[in-house]
Specification:
The chain has about 140 residues and is an alpha+beta fold. The chain has helices at about 1-30, 75-85; strands at about 50-65, 90-100, 100-105, 105-120. A hairpin with a 2-residue loop joins strand 3 and strand 4 (about 105-120). The longest helix has 27 residues, at about 1-30.
Length: about 140
């Protein structure tokens, strides 16, 4: 009986710190740009102020749990798009679009979304001209 108690305490001692470190990691994650409305770098428009290269199209579908569940929010849809783009190594998603929920044979309601995954180009470093030597005055 005591062995079970010690094993349980040891497992709890291992698992609890891992959960806190995971939560801290999620909170400290930073992005190059963020859509303040949804908290992730997904935008319904093009980003013209950052040069980028297109990685590819991303698609996501958010399902309702039951017929009585609420429709998926923009935040949930954008987070789902971001998860897929992040796996491709994207820095952001632009031109995100989604439609109304529709019922299918396997779902009480599903909202499909698409967007373009992009990777920002590195900032160009200004070439520094070599300094001209100044003559020494004696």
């Amino acid at each position: 009986m005591n062995v079970k108690k010690y094993v349980t305490v040891a497992l709890v001692a291992l698992v609890v710190p891992m959960q806190f470190s995971y939560a801290a990691e999620m909170k400290t994650k930073t992005y190059a740009v963020v859509n303040e409305d949804v908290g992730v770098p997904v935008f319904a428009y093009d980003l013209t102020d950052h040069p980028y290269t297109v990685i590819g199209e991303v698609q996501a579908g958010v399902r309702k749990a039951t017929v009585f569940s609420k429709e998926a929010s923009q935040t949930k849809i954008y987070r789902e798009l971001w998860e897929r783009a992040e796996k491709l190594g994207a820095d952001a998603v632009i031109n995100a679009k989604y439609g109304d929920s529709h019922i299918s044979a396997f779902s009480w309601g599903k909202t499909n979304a698409t967007g373009t995954a992009i990777k920002f180009k590195p900032a160009e470093t200004a070439a520094v001209a070599p300094a001209t030597p100044t003559p020494e005055v004696h």
